[in-house]
Amino acid sequence: MEQRISLITLGVADLARARSFYEALGWRGQEVEETVFFQAGGMVLSLWSREKLAADSGVFGLPSGDGFDGIVLAHNVRSTGEVDELVARAEQAGGTVTRAPADTFYGGYAGCVADPDGHLWEIAFNPGFPLAEDGSLHLPDLGGADGADAS
Amino acid sequence: MEQRISLITLGVADLARARSFYEALGWRGQEVEETVFFQAGGMVLSLWSREKLAADSGVFGLPSGDGFDGIVLAHNVRSTGEVDELVARAEQAGGTVTRAPADTFYGGYAGCVADPDGHLWEIAFNPGFPLAEDGSLHLPDLGGADGADAS
């Protein structure tokens, strides 16, 4: 496993409110399918519905008090085989598989594992987000609205 | 505000257990003052006591069910003045200051702000962790035990 994080997804109750907050700080992102992606150095910070994030991660999140961090870290890899290997390795290491590796709605393949403290990692192969040779992730043009267009 | 994250700190109940998990996945870090720091691309993933992390962030965390994510993102800047400016700007943008900017135990200066969904950001000036020109953070030799020595 290369020592890097590809994305951090923050679960949010109101996407427009969350996006406005980060835009007021000067961040500019791309919005696609009710997700906002911000390039952040060699990785990506994204905003997505907290409830969808919980469901997608195999935990069932409510706004608070359920033990769900409301944040998911993602480690992207270069093949479906690497997803299977890494999820299995994390389970052997004491992690809990919350979503077994499977095809994803975005055309990739991914599984989710909680570390011993319940912090969630998605291990993902996403052909739409190719990794650079050094493992960094640079967003392609997603064809969505950029920050400058938003109110 | 430059569009980047300097550190992600995961609050953990048992540092040795958490460190062992990440080491079993192949990660190697440095442990200093009951904190483990892993270089992760141009940023740092760290492990620290969940209760200390909550207290340090100005929230009062219990192991679960308290609305504390258990994760804090840090955005490091290059001066104490930038900390004050950015914390004020985040508050104006709708964030909640959970810890007003002040000197820190590690010889820096920092404040903490919760975004509208309660996700915590530490805005920090840390002279011990200088930023590269591109804003990336590369750990210096902290003089602590490295991962190869552990377990």
Characterization of this structure:
2 copies of one chain form a homodimer. Chain A is α+β, with helices and mostly antiparallel strands. Chain A has one domain: 2,3-Dihydroxybiphenyl 1,2-Dioxygenase, domain 1 (Roll), CATH 3.10.180.10. The first copy, chain A, contains 3 helices and 9 strands. In chain A, strands 6-7-8-5-1-4-3-2-9 form a 9-stranded mixed β-sheet. The radius of gyration of chain A is 15 Å and the shape is globular. Residues 61-65 and 147-151 of chain A have low confidence and may be disordered. At the A-B interface, strand 1, helix 1, strand 3 and helix 3 of A face strand 1, helix 1, strand 3 and helix 3 of B.
Q: Structural class of the helix and strand makeup of chain A?
A: alpha+beta
CATH topology of chain A: 2,3-Dihydroxybiphenyl 1,2-Dioxygenase, domain 1
Return the CATH architecture of chain A.
Roll
Q: Strand content of the residues of chain A, in percent?
A: 25-35%
Mean pLDDT of chain A: 89
Enumerate the strands of the largest sheet of chain A in spatial order, edge to edge or round the barrel: 6-7-8-5-1-4-3-2-9
Helical fraction of chain A equals 10-25%
**CATH superfamily heading of chain A:** 2,3-Dihydroxybiphenyl 1,2-Dioxygenase, domain 1
* Count of discrete alpha- or pi-helical segments spanning 4 or more residues of chain A: 3
Low-confidence stretches of chain A: 61-65, 147-151
Counted beta strands of chain A:
9
Whole-number tally of structural domains of chain A = 1
Give the oligomer, counting copies of the same chain as homo and different chains as hetero. Answer: homodimer
For the record, give the distance between the C-alpha atoms at the N and C termini of chain A, rounded to a whole number. Answer: 40 Å
Q: Which CATH class of chain A is shown?
A: Alpha Beta
Q: What is the general shape of chain A?
A: globular
Please trace the helix and strand order of chain A, writing H or E for each element.
Answer: EHEEEHEHEEEE
